[in-house]
Each structure stands twice: as C-alpha cells, then as structure tokens.
Amino acid sequence: MTNVSSTSRTSGTTVRAAVWREPRSPLSLEDVWLADPASGEVGVRVAATAICGSDLAYVDGHWESPSPAVFGHEAAGTVDRIGPGVTDLAVGDRVVVTLIRSCGSCRKCRAGAPVGCSGRFALDERGPLRDAYGSEIWQGLGVAAFAEAVTVHRSQVFRVGPGIDLDVAALLSCAVLTGVGAVRNTARVAAGSFVVVLGAGGVGLNVVQGARLAGAAEVIAVDPDQRRLDAALRFGASATVAVGEDVPEEVRAMTKGEMADYVFVATAAVSAIETGLGLLARMGTLVLVGMPRSGARVSLDPVTVASTGRRILGSKMGSAKPARDIPALVALYGEGRLELDGLITARYALSEIEEALGSLRSGDALRNVIITDESLIA
Ligand SMILES: [Zn+2]
Ligand SMILES: [Zn+2]
C-alpha cells in the first residue's frame, strides 16, 4: 500500500492552465502553481490532451465537482520531473497519462484489476495545484491536463515508443482504452457474436473497432447523427441504424431473428439503457460504458432479465490493465489494425479550449485535441 506522504509540497513551478469555476461559465486561462512530484510521483510536460465527454459533463455541471478545478485526463507528453523513489522512468520519456491511479498492493490490484484500486494516495489528500491566492484547485479526475504540465502518481504514466505521435497517443488513455477494453476485457466478446453499439461518439467508435477486432459477425452502430454513423462504417461497423428508425426491428432483421449477444451503451442518454435491454438475445449481455448525469435512474423487468439469463455489466475504463493494454493498442495501431487518426476531428491551442468544448458539445466532433506543446508531438 502506498503510504500517504506528509510532504508539504513547497517546491513547484508556475504553469498555464484552463481553470473551471462554475457550470456554464467559460474556463479562464490562468497561471497556477503546480507542485513538484513528491515520493512516487512524476511530472509530465503535456504535449496534447483530448477532450472527453467526462470533461464536458463536469464543465457543464452534469456531474458534481469541487470548484475551482482543472479538467482534462486524456493526455500524453514527456516526463520532465521525477519524484523520489521513481527509478523506472527518465526525463524525456514519451508517455501517456491516464486517470487510473493504482497502488499495486490492495486486493483489487493484486487480483489484476487496477481500475478497482482502493489505495489512498498523497495526491488524493492534497492535490498539486494552487491558484494565485494559494487556494487548492481540484485536480480533475486525478490528472488536470488542460495545462502545460501535470504532477501525477507514477502508476498513471505509461511509456510509448516512437511509432506514434503524442496527439494520437493521448486518445489511448481514455477513449480507446475504454471502448476497446469494454469489448475485450469487460464483455470478452466471442468471435461470431452479434454486437450492437448504442452511441457512435469517441468511445462508441472504439467499441465498434474493438468488436471488429474480436471477430464479431455483425457490428451494428446506432446513433441519431448520420455523420457518426458514416464514421462507424469506417471503424468497422457492418451496418448502421439511425435513431428514429424501428431499432429493434432493424436489429432483428440484421441478426436473423436472434437479436444481440452484446449491446454496448456508449452514450450518456439514459433511455439507451432501456432500449439496449430490449435488443438482447437470450443469454445476452448489456454493457454500460457511457455515464449518464448524476442521479439518473432506469427501470427494468427483473423477471425477464433472470428468466432469459441476461447479464448487465458496468465497464469502468474498459476494465483496463493499462500496463498490458496500452502497449497492445500501440502495436495494433502500428500494424494498421487500430484506427486512431480518424478519431481526431480538430486540433486547438489551449487558449482556444472554449471553442473546442463548444464543438464537442454541439455533437460536431468525435475528439477534439488541445495541443499544448507542438514541439513534443512527433
Ligand atoms: Zn475520459
Ligand atoms: Zn490498489
């Protein structure tokens, strides 16, 4: 178990960050103080951070957050500061930074499930960011990468080789890990399966390509937006259905009357969960990937769920083991079997973050990436 350090965090640097203060008010670019890494921690100069739906859920107030906060958790960069006790990273290493903080020694970590880690960390007790008045700024989702640099726990950082640009690699740390992992780790989709994916955004498209990689017989993407359905076909969907059509009837026709062995809910729309239950075959599995707003409730018919042997699984961060999964994903990308470049709709400077958030909010973007340091990307 990592001991909570009593470090007072007196040494640090000033970095530019996009600070959130209240829902629906613009992020403000501020110079904030970032603590140097303490024992077991690492500092990373951020090259690029992709904007995830979770960031938007916090910014828009759909999820509760302490204020002020800096969000951004889908990041990549280079190691620039190393805390005491970290011996397996060097300054200059190109890395992906994830929100998955794991101690390596709790029950879940020992069972090989770092996303379920119950360890406590010094960074949980006291985050590394302060505003100009010395008040703590919440390190959103344990990363706070809408900034020039981050200080994180060693376990959150994964080295990547030279075969991938860092703006593309950033996507691995959340969208791709979550989407592909939901298929391979959480659901363990078998070859020949009938798969339906509800929601074809940044995560949903990665569920689609994960299902294709798993050898699914049919991968049916469902979304209200025709542009996303077109993207789903490029990512390996065998068919698409627009929301508004008779989705159960379409799925029935495409699965020869069997319905879906797996339905992945990769949207925050609560209604999709109930829709998804209605698309399952006997013994079928519903996988909850997207996160609705806090307090959402769904109704289900337990008799049908039990008598048809259906399963409902929650997928946290694709049940990822990043130390295993990130290198595997980089290898698939290198072999041309994993599409990443096509996930990026546009690139923005940190000063343009409001524009980038707006384009994601409107549904126009799959992933928008904030480029914080162009010189580190390639
Ligand atoms: Zn995310
Ligand atoms: Zn742990």
List keywords for this structure.
7-stranded mixed beta sheet, Rossmann fold, binds zinc ion, 378 residues, 6-stranded parallel beta sheet, 2 domains
In short:
By secondary structure, the chain is of the alpha/beta class. It has helices spanning 53-59, 107-110, 122-125, 166-169, 175-187, 202-213, 226-234, 247-254, 271-277, 302-307, 322-334, 353-361, and strands spanning 12-19, 28-35, 41-50, 69-70, 74-82, 94-97, 129-130, 136-139, 149-153, 157-159, 194-198, 218-223, 239-242, 260-265, 280-288, 311-314, 344-349, 367-371.
Q: What does this entry look like structurally?
A:
This protein is α/β, with parallel strands linked by helices. It folds into two domains: 12-164 and 340-376, Alpha-Beta Complex (Quinone Oxidoreductase, Chain A, domain 1), CATH 3.90.180.10; 177-316, NAD(P)-binding Rossmann-like Domain (Rossmann fold, 3-Layer(aba) Sandwich). It is 25% helix and 26% strand. It has twelve helices and 18 strands. The chain has helices at residues 53-59, 107-110, 122-125, 166-169, 175-187, 202-213, 226-234, 247-254, 271-277, 302-307, 322-334, 353-361; strands at 12-19, 28-35, 41-50, 69-70, 74-82, 94-97, 129-130, 136-139, 149-153, 157-159, 194-198, 218-223, 239-242, 260-265, 280-288, 311-314, 344-349, 367-371. The strands form three sheets. Strands 3, 5, 6, 9, 10, 17 and 18 form a seven-stranded mixed beta sheet that branches. A six-stranded parallel beta sheet has the order 13-12-11-14-15-16, sandwiched between helices. Helix 5 crosses helix 6. The radius of gyration is 21 Å and the shape is globular. The two termini are 36 Å apart. It binds zinc ion (2 copies).
